[in-house]
Amino acid sequence: MGIRLGLNLEFSRHHNMSFQQAVQEAARIGYEFIEPMVHLGRQLLCEGGFMHSLSMSEDPLWVRDFCKNSGVKMSALSAHSQLCKPDIAVEYLRQGIRWAGEMNVPVVNTSEGFKRPWTTEEEDFLLIKYSLKIAAADAERRGVIIGLEPHHQYSASIAGMQRLMSLVDSPAIGLNFDTGNAFLAGKSDIYEYLEHFSNRLVHLHAKDISYRQSDTQRGKVTGTAVGCACGDGVVDWQRVIEICQRIPREIIFSVECGTLEEAQKSFRYLAPLLD
After folding, report:
1. φ, ψ (nearest 5 deg) of residue 2
2. Residue 127, pLDDT above cutoff 80
3. Partners of 55 in the beta sheet?
4. Contact in structure between 201 and 178 (CB atoms under 8 Å)
5. What is the pLDDT of residues 63-122, one digit of tens each?
6. Does position 254 have pLDDT exceeding 90, yes or no?
7. Pairing mode, if any, of strands 107-110 and 145-148?
8. Are 214 and 186 spatial neighbours (Cβ–Cβ below 8 Å)?
9. Strand 3-8 and strand 38-39: pairing?
10. Which residues contact 4 (CB under 8 A, 6 or more apart)?
11. Domains of the chain, with CATH numbers?
């Protein structure tokens, strides 16, 4: 089915852009898809037009129409809902799934979240199962897939993600692979990780990691907000592309970088490789 290029809107935080400005910049560069971030309630910077995140108190159809009129589609919603904290995750993720269903967005991305200091590992997995069980039922009814992302203590390794994937038996649970997070965690080879879960891959965060960040942080963190421009870091993109090209479904590479310049540079680097 091939690989298409999208842009996670995190790049716009550096420039204090609104959602509308971020979408228009992505379209101007040439990206076909975007990945918005959504939140519950209201946020002052977002309401003032200085941040791209979307309040799910708004009507999702204006978002759909704005993207369509701007010439881009939505590959996924970013709703990192802290699955091991059901008091946060359940309401947040379910609302994100409802938004995705109404806008015909195929994937909602999330992760297990940071553990609380007083829970055991077994308790964490029970809490994650509880959150996923409820969310997966909503997702199945709407034809939406929950993309579990390697981002925290359990999902950083192949074995940990395998355990997370096995908690709930549902076709609505897949993998949103983040190349940069998986690399920085250093617990599994990222290409082996991607190969291992290729049959569950539904979306990919194309995040490169600079050599400087790799030298100072690898093995010490399990994720990072953004990476450097694709092609400027440690990720072998040709190898990632070759793995994904063998997958019999369309995969969106959602570039996750820190600035507008890096978004432009990533597009210029990846587009010829995909062609």
Report:
1. 95, 175
2. yes
3. 39
4. no
5. 999 999 999 999 999 999 999 999 999 999 999 999 999 999 999 999 999 999 999 999
6. yes
7. parallel
8. no
9. unpaired
10. 32, 33, 75, 250, 251, 252, 253, 274
11. 3-274 (3.20.20.150)
